[in-house]
């Protein structure tokens, strides 16, 4: 239509849509403009929060301009796109990151200062977008950052929960959960797209008919529907929220059943109400299945709509569309696409299935059996009757091919079936995801190999090795170094002569030479100390505990889980405490002072994990006020660990703990964040720790414990040969049982998990080597010059773990997509 406009009209648009200038005065004007108009406030009654809102709105204006330009240019090229389907995006705050990415943080800082505010306080006013549990959700956020930075045509699809991960408070040492109603105020980082609204159906039945050619056709006649409304976020993430299809169901209303019609409306809105707070476990709730279908159906509809605009053949679909499944949560998208193609677009089953399997790829994030998604067939049938038929057909055709390749092996068919023959039958979502995808990947080298020999072994035998690949996780250096550790970022840029390392992290290698430079080492360690001071202040504010920034800061922050072994850490702390108590004053003089810091949430229904939190707090209460210990040992549990707390904690570690039982932590990503910030790690040979060791060298990491291939034998030996408990551990357990830390009855269920024959996570087997490794840490830390060299070498050799590298590998080897750099045309 634009082509029909008179020249003057086009010129007027062009002139008026010139981008705003980036000088401080213009920035101030735009802030004040938003205060007085959008927020309708006067300067004199403004607080930090409204200053934040105004700065955010002004920042958003600029982001939207750039974003529009990108989308406009992209839609002309119409390249192949990737769609990243994730039930979780753990974004944290946006403003600081947006300002840094646009290179405008200093100018905004200056502007806001002249207007009477302090940038740090304004930044602190933003609430976290916490739509995720832990590693999987934060990985999705890092990948979106890298996809945008590298100019890949990509969209993320997820759910806009009203309640993110719960807020954690500690009451009497116990975790208590509070709702995270993060949308209390308008969220400036999202744009409602009320024009994008999709009907999502549930329930009902399937009608089977013969068409004019005698072909059997299936039509799903749904029993109810809800609406999906899109919100867009400046990071190319589209989040769906549910709304009732009609405000009032007319039938119920006319029957005089007003209450029922309102109830139905409430039920529709429930779908996107809350994020399920489980990490590495499966809840099996009906509402969760509803969430999964609602989200995958809405996303696919959107993807198909965009594809149809280009008027291509269906067979071109996989050349235009790649869909990445972040764990099995979006696996229903496979079934939904098959249904659309067969039932609605009338393609043949085989043609449709070829398109489907070329489109999807699947990432597995865990091998823990309790995390494997399974849905009961009766429940599934009630919600999605047509999808169930399609799953049974997919399974039938698949098992027929398996039978052909490996005849007469019923055990094999049972093991590989998408349907588990239990009472009632269960749908194994991981099997469905493997069968419906062209590539399956794990998230670190060890993990990708493990899944090939354990949960997907039969599938490797059937499909061959090529379908199963590794994509080692990564983290974005923009947030996890540049934003979280501005002083270190500045020092690195100074040392390397430019900031190109931010988009090419391997350039950090240039810091290796600097490890030999004493003056540089001093600057490096001064920054580490400043970051420790910043964390000490947070600990004072949140826990009212005084810690010395000169002590060794030892940190373990992550979701609380038995496999991650926070329990082993606190048991070793008790051992340390007992050792110090038994010392003479002369002996104490040579003890390395340590502050042991914990943080992390336990799933609300995970009783043992919650007891671990209680034990940590009980130990802290005794240790921290024991005059015989003083500053030699402090124990801290930082409440409500989240992304913005992590941004303070990560730069402040001397050592951090990544101590999962070998073979259980698929990758880990906080290990990468700590090392990138010059923190050393103590860890097991698990997940990405192994690759970190390969990159930074064995002199710069403290490794202990058994290896993944030894785990089964150790468990067996413990169960059947009565291996006695480690004596040091025995001493620690006795101390707890004697009531050294509150009423020992409280901790009995926790201690029971260690009783010989039951210690599934092998705490006893690894305990002695863990204590030794911790002693090596103390000894190494005494030599600060050598330690600072290690610290610098850690950062210098972490280039591999940029999420830019991960995303490039996915793009080249799985998605087959290319970047499209967008030219700055200087227009809105
Ligand atoms: C791994 N979450 C980390 C990280 O790859 C890894 C599973 C089922 C239901 C709900 N949540 C989940 C996970 O499995 C998960 O977060 N896995 C984590 O993914 C990114 O670094 O080792 O535990």
Tags for this model:
828 residues, alpha/beta, Rossmann fold, 3 domains, 9-stranded mixed beta sheet, 6-stranded parallel beta sheet, 15% strand, globular, binds N-[oxo(pyridin-2-ylamino)acetyl]-beta-D-glucopyranosylamine
Topology:
Layout: H1 7-16, H2 24-38, H3 48-77, E1 81-85, E2 89-92, H4 95-102, H5 105-114, H6 119-124, E3 129-131, H7 135-149, E4 154-159, E5 167-171, E6 174-178, E7 190-202, E8 205-210, E9 216-221, E10 224-233, E11 237-244, H8 250-254, H9 258-270, H10 286-309, H11 317-320, E12 321-326, H12 332-344, H13 349-359, E13 360-363, E14 374-376, H14 377-383, H15 385-405, H16 410-416, E15 419-420, E16 426-428, H17 429-435, E17 439-442, H18 445-453, H19 457-463, E18 468-470, H20 477-483, H21 486-496, H22 518-543, E19 552-557, H23 566-581, H24 585-588, E20 594-599, H25 607-623, E21 633-638, H26 643-649, E22 655-658, H27 670-676, E23 680-683, H28 689-696, E24 702-703, H29 711-720, H30 727-737, H31 748-752, H32 763-782, H33 784-796, H34 803-815
Helix pairs in contact: 2-3, 2-5, 3-4, 4-20, 7-34, 10-12, 12-13, 12-15, 14-15, 22-33, 23-25, 23-30
This protein binds N-[oxo(pyridin-2-ylamino)acetyl]-beta-D-glucopyranosylamine.
């Amino acid at each position: 239509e634009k082509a029909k406009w008179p020249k003057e009209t086009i010129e007027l648009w062009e002139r008026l849509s010139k981008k705003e200038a980036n000088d401080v005065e213009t920035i101030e004007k735009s802030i004040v403009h938003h205060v007085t108009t959008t927020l309708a406030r006067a300067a004199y009654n403004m607080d930090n929060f409204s200053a934040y809102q105004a700065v955010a709105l002004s920042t958003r204006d600029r982001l939207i301009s750039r974003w529009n330009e990108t989308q406009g240019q992209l839609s002309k090229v119409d390249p192949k796109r990737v769609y990243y389907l994730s039930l979780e995006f753990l974004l944290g705050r946006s403003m600081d990151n947006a300002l840094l990415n646009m290179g405008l943080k200093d100018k905004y800082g200056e502007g806001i200062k002249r207007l009477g505010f302090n940038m740090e306080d304004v930044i602190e006013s933003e609430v976290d977008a916490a739509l995720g549990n832990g590693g999987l959700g934060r990985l999705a956020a890092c990948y979106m950052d890298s996809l945008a930075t590298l100019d890949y045509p990509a969209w993320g699809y997820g759910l806009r929960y009203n309640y993110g991960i719960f807020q954690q408070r500690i009451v009497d040492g116990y975790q208590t959960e509070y709702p995270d109603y993060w949308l209390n105020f308008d969220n400036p980082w999202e744009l409602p797209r009320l024009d994008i609204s999709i009907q999502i159906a549930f329930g009902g039945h399937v009608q089977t008919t013969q068409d004019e050619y005698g072909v059997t056709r299936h039509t799903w006649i749904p029993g109810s529907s809800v609406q999906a409304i899109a919100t867009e976020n400046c990071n190319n993430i589209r989040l769906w929220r549910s709304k009732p299809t009609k405000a009032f169901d007319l039938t119920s209303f006319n029957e005089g059943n007003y209450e029922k019609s309102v109830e139905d409306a409430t039920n529709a809105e429930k779908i996107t109400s809350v994020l399920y707070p489980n990490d590495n476990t499966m809840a099996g709730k009906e509402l969760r299945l509803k969430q999964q279908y609602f989200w995958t159906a809405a996303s696919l509809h959107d993807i198909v709509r965009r594809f149809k605009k280009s008027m291509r053949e269906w067979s071109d679909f996989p050349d235009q569309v790649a869909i990445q499944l972040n764990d099995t949560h979006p696996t229903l998208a496979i079934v939904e696409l098959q249904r659309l193609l067969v039932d609605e677009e009338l393609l043949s089953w085989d043609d449709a299935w070829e398109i489907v399997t070329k489109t999807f790829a699947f990432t597995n994030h865990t091998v823990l059996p309790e995390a494997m998604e399974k849905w009961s067939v009766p429940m599934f049938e009630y919600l999605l009757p047509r999808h169930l038929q399609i799953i049974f057909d997919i399974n039938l055709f698949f098992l027929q091919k398996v039978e052909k390749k490996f005849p007469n092996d019923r055990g094999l068919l049972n093991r590989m079936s998408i349907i588990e023959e239990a009472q009632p039958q269960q749908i194994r979502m991981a099997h469905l995801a493997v069968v419906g995808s062209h590539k399956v990947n794990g998230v670190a080298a060890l993990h990708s190999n493990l899944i090939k020999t354990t949960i997907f072994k039969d599938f490797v035998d059937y499909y061959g090795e090529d379908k199963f690949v590794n994509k080692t996780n990564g983290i974005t250096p923009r947030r996890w170094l540049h934003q979280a550790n501005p002083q270190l970022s500045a020092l690195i840029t100074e040392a390397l002569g430019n900031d190109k390392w931010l988009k090419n992290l391997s350039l950090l290698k240039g810091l290796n030479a600097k490890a030999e430079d004493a003056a540089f080492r001093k600057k490096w360690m001064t920054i580490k100390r400043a970051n420790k001071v910043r964390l000490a202040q947070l600990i004072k504010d949140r826990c009212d505990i005084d810690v010395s920034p000169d002590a060794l800061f030892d940190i373990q922050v992550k979701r609380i889980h038995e496999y991650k072994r926070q329990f082993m850490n606190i048991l070793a702390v008790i051992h340390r405490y007992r050792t110090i108590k038994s010392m003479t004053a002369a002996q104490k003089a040579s003890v390395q002072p340590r502050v042991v810091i914990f943080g992390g949430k336990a799933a609300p229904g995970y009783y043992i994990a919650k007891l671990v939190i209680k034990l940590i707090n009980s130990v802290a209460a005794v240790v921290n006020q024991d005059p015989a210990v003083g500053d030699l040992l402090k124990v801290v549990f930082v409440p409500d660990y989240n992304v913005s707390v992590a941004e303070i904690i990560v730069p402040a570690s001397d050592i951090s703990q990544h101590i999962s039982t070998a073979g259980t932590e698929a990758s880990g990503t906080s290990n990468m964040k700590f090392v990138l910030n010059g923190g050393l790690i103590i860890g097991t040979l698990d997940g990405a720790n192994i690759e970190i060791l390969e990159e930074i060298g064995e002199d710069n990491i403290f490794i202990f414990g058994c290896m993944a291939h030894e785990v089964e034998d150790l468990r067996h030996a413990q169960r059947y040969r009565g291996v006695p408990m480690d004596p040091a551990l025995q001493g620690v357990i006795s101390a707890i049982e004697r009531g050294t830390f509150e009423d020992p009855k409280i901790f009995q269920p926790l201690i029971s998990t260690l009783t010989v024959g039951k210690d599934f996570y092998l705490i006893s087997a690894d305990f002695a080597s863990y204590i030794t490794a911790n002693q090596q840490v103390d000894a190494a830390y005494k030599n600060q010059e050598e330690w600072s060299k290690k610290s610098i070498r850690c950062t210098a050799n972490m280039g591999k773990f940029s999420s830019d590298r991960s995303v490039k590998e996915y793009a080249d080897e799985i998605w087959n997509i290319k970047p499209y750099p967008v030219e700055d045309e200087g227009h809105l």
